[in-house]
Amino acid sequence: MKINFNLYYRFCSFLSILLLLPSCNSKEKIDSAKNNYSTWTSYLGGPDRNHFSTLSQITPENVGKLKLAWSYQAPDTGQMQMNPIIVDSILYGVTAALRVVALNASTGQEIWRFGDSLPLQLSTSRGVSFWGKDDDKRILFSKGSDLYALNALTGKPIATFGNRGKIDLRSGMPKSAKDKFVISNTPGTIFEDMIFMPLRLSEDVGSAPGNIMAFNVITGALEWVFHTIPHPGEEGYGTWEDPNSYKSELVGAANNWAGMAVDQEEAILYVPTGSAAPDFYGGKRKGSNLYANCLLALNARTGKRIWHFQFTHHDVWDRDPPAPPNLITVERGGKRIAAVAQVTKQGFVYVFDRKTGEPLFDIEEVPVPTTSTLEGEVVWATQPIPVKPKAFARYSTTLTEDNVSPYAENPDSLRQIITKSDKRMYAPPSLDPVLLLPGYDGAAEWGGAGADPKEGILYVNSNEMAWILQMKANDSTAPRLPFGEAVYHKYCVNCHQKDRQGLEVSGFPSLLGIQERLSKEAIESIISNGKGMMTGFPQISDAEKKGLLAFLLEQQDKFEITEGVPLSKPYPLPYKHGGYHKFLDKNGLPAISPPWGTLHAIDLNTGEYIWSIPFGETPMLKEKGFPITGSENYGGPLITKNGLLFIGATKDGYFRAFDKHTGKLLWEYELPAPAFATPAMYEVEGKQYIAVACGGEKLGTKKGNQIVAFALE
């Protein structure tokens, strides 16, 4: 008898996978289109993005008995912002170098790993998406500009999806976007047989347009496109003074990068959109700029607009919504209303009727400063501010000399900055400093808000970090620099500084001695693909890339370039953003008085706060006996029906459980590295777990590479 060794090998491989799989109770078999809050099969717990679970084995009374159940060490280290998903007792996540891992959700044992054969990218990913129908179960995951469909049991690409298992996310964009920076950090949203993909694009001149695109999960084909920069004949086209804005080489973005929510029953997709590009100077994109900085309600099957609301008109502060909205139910006058709530960088919560877009709390168009000192800039005269709830973060308008940190050793110089800076709300960017509070990263951030969806209670963590916003003139008379240094000044100097020492406290590392930390290939990958806060520059010429590498590696003397090869194009705007500078004291701590991080429970039925507390600690001050200061935090909370709120997120590296009704701390655990990510809750064979990714690295913290899970003994 002849043996077909190919079939035999495939059978044995599949059998070995089955042996690693945990047993699956029938109740754990899921329909990817529904969410009963007892599973965690999609990003942030479900398509409504509420971070909510009805699992009840862990209670406020026994949470103090939580122990580490298992940990998984990834093959690479660094930021892991991902929120795991759990399907049929398998946990799926993404490592710091964009490898997809499938783990036994009860033991943490690796079942399969995808990405080892691909060029590794040191980027960030917030997770994967799952789609399933009968025996066809798929994990959808993005790396660079590619979207992959993987077999959920084997990790192998689905050959019939697109081009042998992947599609290019730029396939729904104009040809001009072919070589532009287009990636996705956030998992796509699944509806029926479609996936809607968030996109991260450049924020400067030359950005791709931020089209909202739907792809077929089975074939990879493009299903529909919504133009966030409207084309001629489309509603909103007239909100851009330049009729050619939709095809301009200077203008772009208005993309969704933060993720979306979908109402499965009503087939409505809710899309928060980003700022128009270029970010901080709008002289080339005059107008209110629809549909940038909006919440869009689209027909999920066709992409047609149902309603929209714009949070910031003609944004020149990077005030785009940072997280998916929450689909909740609120009560008004005894009537239950399906609502959608959007948190913002400004610290506001906007609440709308989900079907009509009618605001459920009054929103006032408030006059703001209109005089810009930047030639060609025309700022918008009003901005929409909700009457309720009040902002969950402080504003720069409230800062006085008395608000300098009591722990600062250089208070006099900090008071001078507060006195001299423009602190008006929505003060136009200027050549003089503007004190931006909440800062660039916002009060709310990409971790988003958790919610008790049926009770209408929102839980949101907030940063209290002021930044300095300052523009600089584009000086074309500057002395000619060596080629590689000139490339550095064009693309890198704003963040990494002229001396290449960076701004570690603001998240921009020093590039001095980079050759001792990273290989030439890794540096080249970061230049093209980006890393963390940094967008990539795939559009730069080969000559520019070689020159930049030579400068960074301190090998300019060995670098020869043909006479007359110029920089690809001179910077076309009269002003540049002056870089990202946190307002810090001499010890690198926030220069304003605490709290520096907060956590809130807001009743969206009434618009009133239930509680607010400082969130996180500063170890160097705690050791000296000072009160809780709060700390910077990234990543969202997890809410349980029976009264718990779990959250990592803080710079101090703890994982904590609070009483969701009072804000009282019930339990904390020091993680192997800070968890700048949102946890996930699930159950396997009657045992409840909570898992979180601990990647660290951000905010100058130590690097980590673990996914950890907790359970009761």
Description of the molecule:
The structure is a single chain. With about 725 residues, the protein is mainly beta. Helices cover about 10% and strands about 30% of the residues. β5 (about 100-105) and β6 form a beta hairpin. α3 (about 485-490) packs across α6 (about 540-550). The N and C termini lie far apart (about 55 Å).
CATH topology label of the domain at 475-570: Cytochrome Bc1 Complex, Chain D, domain 2
Number of strands: 43
Helix content: under 10%
Instruction: Give the C-level CATH assignment of the domain at 475-570.
Output: Mainly Alpha
Provide the structure class.
Answer: mainly beta
Rg measurement, Å: 25 Å
The termini sit apart by 53 Å
Give the second-level CATH assignment, the architecture of the domain at 475-570. Orthogonal Bundle
Largest sheet, spatial ordering of strands: 1-37-38-39-40
Q: Give the averaged pLDDT, no decimals.
A: 91
Oligomeric form: single chain
Instruction: Assign the CATH superfamily of the domain at 475-570.
Output: Cytochrome c-like domain
Strand content: 25-35%
Envelope shape: globular
Largest β-sheet summary: 5 strands, mixed
List low-pLDDT spans.
1-19, 23-34
